[in-house]
Hints:
The complex is a heterodimer.
Chain A: H1 4-56, H2 67-74, H3 76-109, H4 112-123, H5 130-141, H6 146-153, H7 167-191, H8 195-203, H9 208-236, H10 240-245, H11 253-264, H12 267-300
Chain B: H1 2-22, E1 25-30, H2 33-51, E2 54-59, H3 63-72, E3 80-84, H4 85-93, E4 97-98, E5 120-132, H5 144-148, E6 157-160, H6 166-173, H7 181-185, H8 188-201, E7 205-209, H9 212-221, E8 226-230, H10 231-239, E9 244-261, H11 267-277, H12 280-286, E10 293-294, H13 307-312, H14 317-320, E11 324-325, H15 328-347
Parallel strand pairs in B: 1-2, 1-3, 6-7, 6-8, 9-11
Antiparallel strand pairs in B: 3-9, 4-9, 5-8, 5-9, 5-10
Helix pairs in contact in B: 2-11, 2-12, 4-15, 6-8, 8-15, 9-10
Amino acid sequence: MTALNPAASLREADNSAHLAWDARLERLVSFAFTLPCLMVVALCVLVPCAWLFFLSAYGADGRMSLENYQRIVDGASYARIFVTTFQVALATVVACVVIGVPFATFINSLPPRRSVLFLAAVLLPFWTSLLVRAYAWLVLLQRTGIVNSVLMGLGVTNAPLELAFNHFATVLGMTHIMLPIFILPVLGAMRNIDRALIRAAASMGATRGYTFRKVFLPLAAPGIAAGAILVFVMSLGFYVTPAILGGGNVTVISMRIARSLSNYSNWGAASALGVLLLVFTALLFALSYGVQRILLSRQRS
Amino acid sequence: MRGSILAAGILAAAFAGTASAEETTLTLNTPGGAVQEGGRAVLWGPAAKKLGVQIKEETADNALDVLRLEVGSNSVKTDIIIMSGYQAAIAGSQGMLEPIDYKAVDASGFLPGTAAPYCVGIYGYAAVMAWNTKTYAKEAPSSWADFWNVEKFPGKRSMRADAEAQVEMALLADGVAPQDVYKVLGTEDGIKRAIAKIASLKPSISVWWSSGAQHGQLMKDGEVDMTTGWNGRFQTAKEAGGPVNYTYNQGILTYDCFAVTKGSAHKAEAMKMINEMSSAQSQAGLTKYVSYGPLNQGAYKTGIISKEAEAVLPTSPSNSGAMLVQDIDWWAKNNDHVQQLFEDMMTE
Lengths: 301, 348
């Protein structure tokens, strides 16, 4: 008996080495499968990004310099434009959360057939052009627009309200565009919540509000966070909506990038702005990723 | 053997020589649209026929990019290029254009300031003031001082989201005489004064427009009561029955022009072509295609332009006197700096 044992353990050891080799091979093969994908990412994302960094380090005279970054630090308007961009994006996120979370909760509570109907209502504007939607808001909001005509006709106000060409109109238009993008991941997260947990809470005497706050919302939180990050990052790059609905009173980074190109034909200056936006976005992304992980780990415990 | 090759070479060169003498082909770059269509009919079409040359047309959105590419890579194909006077001043200062040979080009009949060292004007247009005729039914504003006077003329304003022409307007409103505008803008204090004047109007500016279509629409919809903008758009809105009127008084006159690419293989022919295309007859003919004004003042004496058309063209003798011809060299030198200050003011 004792004589057999070492041999058996030896065989087992041999086996585990084989298994480890197999596992490594499998990883290698699956990695090989992802190679085309990685190459596409490298070609379409990494190379242009590297090119962006490269261009930003060249001055107008074609020599390497930090003048593009110096201009951003010196120019009074750049800091304001960055602040405006982040303000508008943040306001859009808040508006999406305030409108989107109750709406997703509502859709989630409906039986499947009726929920499809409401989901379609969310998705429908998704298929209309960005430009058309921005101008549609202008028709509604401008001084001689429908909203002001109705309000003045009803005697609510004497003078037309300033609804268009400001931060309000910009955030409104962007929220309209981002809402489906926010609601979909939130709804996904809500659908994955085990209904038994809700019933369990209710059976133990929790009120509906208490169940919603203490059970439902924490379980949906990762989805809400994912939606919020998505909306925020996408909102940072908006161009058409702020350009039309902001009427020049809301200048965001993308507008300044376009101006650097059309007005000064200065690729370096535009690239430097792009690099800064990318860096800020990446930092925020890392930050929110950390927050999301904390939320998830807390949920598990 | 060697001799025969040489002979063949000489023969070939001789043939090539005669061929090019018979049909020199000039490449002409245009912005397309009505300018290209009208230009073909009345400018380079007839001129090429008269001079016995061929014209190859090309189009580009941004003439500066074409020059940067061709001159930068040392492969000049374009001989004549249509660009804005401002762009030509930049391109000229960066060595991308041949100086115009005014011995070959007769620009004696041109409006002063519209035949520049590097380009010869084709047509002029003006940045003017327009207002809503319903809002200001009793008394219409008539000067930039009125545009800035929100007590006498209350209402919403719109200005361009770009310093171009707006700084000149601001100084005119501030009481600077037209002939002194660029003298004042020649100093840093003068530039700051213009920007500060625009900043003072900011509370009344509800929209900063960025395209001609936009300021036309803003006026037509009654979204603003007064705006700066290009004469053609307001004329169209007025003719369509909109509550819009405009004045050429204190307007800022700018122009598009012909320029010759640095290193063009047909420099002399290009100058001759430009001379032909700058004739009173040619420039008058172009008004049938575009709503811009001829710069050769002789065009108004050809009988081609009707009295009604003359009354609304920005360059006609009755209108041009009230306007300031934009100094394209000042803009070429100061654009980046002024735009930066303007943007600081806009985002503040």
